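Design job #97: recover the sequence.
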């Protein structure tokens, strides 16, 4: 996975993230939320409950075959851009 960020000032950032690390991060997040979820307020809990991190980790395995697929492409009026590709 590659994350490209372009700021209004012209600075560009590139963040490479291997899919195996992203999958591991999802599994760790799932475990951490399970253990510390009771410390969240209700609004935070409602947002977190909408995400199934275990299923997200499993789906990353299937996305390996779609290299180059753009998952997110956002451009603001100010000239800032964020693109996430596989």
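Job complete. Output follows.
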């Amino acid at each position: 996975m590659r994350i490209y960020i372009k700021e209004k000032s012209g600075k560009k950032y590139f963040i490479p993230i291997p899919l195996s690390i992203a999958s591991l991060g999802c599994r760790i997040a799932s475990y951490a939320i399970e253990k510390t979820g009771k410390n969240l307020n209700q609004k935070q809990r409602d947002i977190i409950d909408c995400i199934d991190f275990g299923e997200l980790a499993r789906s990353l395995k299937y996305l390996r075959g779609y290299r180059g697929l753009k998952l997110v492409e956002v451009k603001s009026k100010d000239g800032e851009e964020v693109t996430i590709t596989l």
